[in-house]
From TrEMBL:
The keyword Nucleus applies. Residues 1-62 are annotated as: Disordered. It is found in: Nucleus. Residues 73-235 form the EVE domain. Keywords: Nucleus, Phosphoprotein. It comes from the Eukaryota. This is Thymocyte nuclear protein 1. Gene3D superfamilies: ph1033 like domains (3.10.590.10). Specifically binds 5-hydroxymethylcytosine (5hmC), suggesting that it acts as a specific reader of 5hmC. PANTHER family: THYMOCYTE NUCLEAR PROTEIN 1 (PTHR14087:SF7). It holds the Pfam family EVE. The keyword Phosphoprotein applies.
Amino acid sequence: MPWPSRKRDKGAVADKKEPDAKIAKTEEETSDKEEEEKSAKPPAGSSKSGWKNWKKTKESEAGGEESKITYCHWLLKSEPESRLEKGVDVKFSIDDLKAQPNQTTCWDGVRNYQARNFLRAMKLGQQAFFYHSNCKEPGIVAIVKIVKEAYPDHTQFDQKDPHYDSTSRKENPKWSMVDVQFVRMTKRFIPLSEIKAHHQAHKADGGPLKNMMLFTRQRLSIQPLTQEEFDFVLSLEEEKPH
């Protein structure tokens, strides 16, 4: 039996706690062909280590020079509060995941090319933050891991599913999904507002969250994280909430 969809790409809105989010272009404003061409590869950029307040500093192999970003962790957005899409409730909270057999589910319903490509880039065993989105208090609640790499998303062929895609063909499927398994709850809820405060400070001081995609591509439901970003956010669970 198909699981409730985790889709939050096409037509998505910024998190309710982010009314000041500035989004230049939504997915709908970019044609499928444009979006697919632009998102053919995960974004690359530069990253500086050794931020003055970051405990886990790393020495650059290039003697302190900037190096290309490598993504090895992920952030997966899911909606914990009920919302109907074409008559189907797309709610799926961390409790819903924990209630699944073997605490495992397929991550279906993604209908954005860049997010799909991120799904296809996921490797077995990689960890991701489970992020409650589009709710009263968005933020990170748990850690999950990839237990099955990308394969065709069955919902694209199901006419009764809200994410049915009549243009996708079984011999050449457009959309993919992965299987994820619950690992553990974070030691405390890490709210978006707290992560945003660090992001803003890091933009000024060159910290690990300065380019975090949670703030540069807010609408994407699948987002990559560097090792530095993942480690820093994970370290927040040890701190008392501000």
